[in-house]
Amino acid sequence: MPPGPADLLLHNAKFITVGRHCPIAGAVAVRDGRIIATGESREALRSLAGPETVIEDLCGRTVIPGIIDSHNHIVAAGRTMDGVMLFDARNMNDVKQLVARRASRAAPGEWVQGAGWIESQFDEHRPPTRWELDEAAPDNPVILNRLFGGSVCNSKALAAAGISSRTPDPPVGTIVRDVNTGEPDGYLRDGAEVMVRDIIPKGSSQDIVAEYKRHARRALAEYVRWGITSVIDPGSDPYAMRAYQEIYLEGELVPRVNMMPVWWGLRGSEDPYVPVKAAAMGVRTRFGDTHLSIGALKMAIDGGLGSKTAMMYEPWLDGTHATVPPRLDMSRLKEYFDEAHRAGWSVGIHTIGDKAQDIAVETFAEVMSACPRDDVRHNIVHGYFPSPRALGLMKRHNIGVSVQPGFIWVEGDIYYEALPEKRLWDYKPLKTYLDTGIIAAANSDMTSAHYNPFLGMCAAVTRKTARGRVMGEDQRLSVEEMLPLFTLEGARLSFEEDVKGSIEAGKFADLAVLSDDITAVEADRIKDLTVLATYIGGRKVYDARES
Ligand SMILES: [Zn+2]
Question: Which of 391, 407, 408 is nearest to 399 (CA)?
């Protein structure tokens, strides 16, 4: 560290450092955006304070490393924030009100889009219908994404896509119909929603980039209010990458962003949206700098658990098996991994079912055995039900896992309809992953769950669903075990553990000042924590007192 005084000295706080040497510090000295020293108190760092040093008293608050949301669909998040966000809707009335409120700001005919619902959150325990949405927005087409595996549309949206009672189901997915009349009821399931999604006018590629920039700015500005200082975007298409780059060049990219370019497979098949296969882009994982960089390639195999579209060995509770085809040509999976791996790409692959995870991990292992290298970090995205064999191979080949504990909270209740309770005890088994020595990062997967990081943290510690069921007590983590998953381990996924993820000398001063001491509040109350201030590279980018 070059000599000279600190620019900033933060003191009178409980810094939970997530560092190896000193778990708790009382003061932190920062120069040029990086932490130069931590100490017990302001007094201990006295020698680093010069006449120009800004000294800030944090009034005894608890500070954690800036939160790394290592799986967050930023553009879709911004689009949802600009549209209808349904996470907190408790019944059809709430849905209608939220849709009506948004439609009242829209021009006639303008699309109203939203997300964040699953039937288990509603008192009625079913999706909204087209007719309910028609009441709320008679003059606008409406599409509302389920957390995963479908969307519900109003009549105007169905008509725009030419969907009527005579329309057959598409090759992938189901047009759900009213049992009495055979009329589509508005719910388009497991891929059928693409029929509507694809006809929403997008404009020129310049228009798309401009729209993406607007959404990205909105989402990222919201995230700093929650102490999120870094985000990994899993499945950046070329427009998103252009949008981030432009915001960055304009000097306005506030949280750090790591982009995971989308590989064919995220949308189902070879995708006209993705002009070149990402592995052939020339640049590869780790291109960029500490503010905007390229991470792993994003691939996907199967669907979800709540939609019963995961690739599992055993049938669902009702005796059925998933019928949705895999999102990648499985006969070419090894070829795809091999191509990416040899070109220097890490791969993050979406697998939900135990069978899908086994296939992915075995294929990774084969490719890595044939061509060992330590400059890539492959990971399993979601990883709900790892088999003992998958765990062993993940450990041996250093394959990480990217987990969304918040799903336990937002959609855990619906899982009880898909699988026997006993099976759910091992759902997203964070404790098992940690005990096996596997790199495990936790994140929100906004828009499949709310971006509030404290919901996920609370769920990792309590394993509680929204309706209060505890899903596998054995997998509960202590706060001390949980915090690195939302900070340091996320940095590992993007090879940035040397520059961020903990409060230690040499790292960026990315920090979140909390409303309460996360180690002292009752576990159930972790989800109610808020953020008082956020720092990125030593700069205060959010102060609750000023907003
Ligand atoms: Zn996702």
Answer: 391
The pLDDT assigned to 518 comes to 98
pLDDT in tens, 117-143: 999 999 999 999 999 999 999 999 999
| Residue 433, amino acid | Y
Cα–Cα distance, 465 to 469 (Å, whole number): 5
Percent of the chain at pLDDT above 90? Answer: 88
DSSP-based three-state secondary structure for 208 = helix
C-alpha 372 – ligand 1 centre gap (Å)? 28
Residue 140: alpha-carbon gap to chain centroid: 29
Summarised one tens digit per residue, pLDDT across range 248-295 is 999 999 999 999 998 764 444 445 445 456 667 778 899 999 999 999
| Radius of gyration of the CA atoms of the chain, in A | 23
With the CA atoms of 56, 59, 64 and 65 taken in that order, what torsion angle do they form, in degrees rounded to the nearest 10? 0
- 282 C-beta neighbours (distance < 10 Å), count: 8
Relative to beta strand 347-351, strand 379-382 is parallel
**C-alpha closest to that of 87 among 449, 467, 442, 452:** 449
Pairing of strands 24-31, 34-39: antiparallel
Amino acid at 47: S
pLDDT < 70 regions, the chain: 1-3, 264-279
| Distance between Cα 475 and ligand 1 center (Å) | 22
Q: How far is the CA of 235 from the centre of ligand 1 (A)?
A: 8
Q: Is the pTM of this model over 0.70?
A: yes
Q: What residues contact 72, with CB distance under 8 A and at least 6 apart?
A: 223, 228, 231, 232, 233, 234, 443, 444, 445, 446, 451
Q: Given phi > 0 = left and psi -120 to 50 = alpha, else beta, which region is 538?
A: left
Q: What 3-state DSSP class applies to 124?
A: coil
User: 49 CA to middle of ligand 1, Å?
Assistant: 44
- Is the link from the previous residue into 447 a cis peptide, with omega within 30 of 0? yes
Looking at residue 322, its pLDDT comes to 84
Alpha-helix runs per DSSP H in 250-305: none
Distance (Å) from CA 418 to ligand 1 centroid: 20
Please state the φ and ψ torsions of residue 128, each to the nearest 5 degrees.
Answer: -65, 160
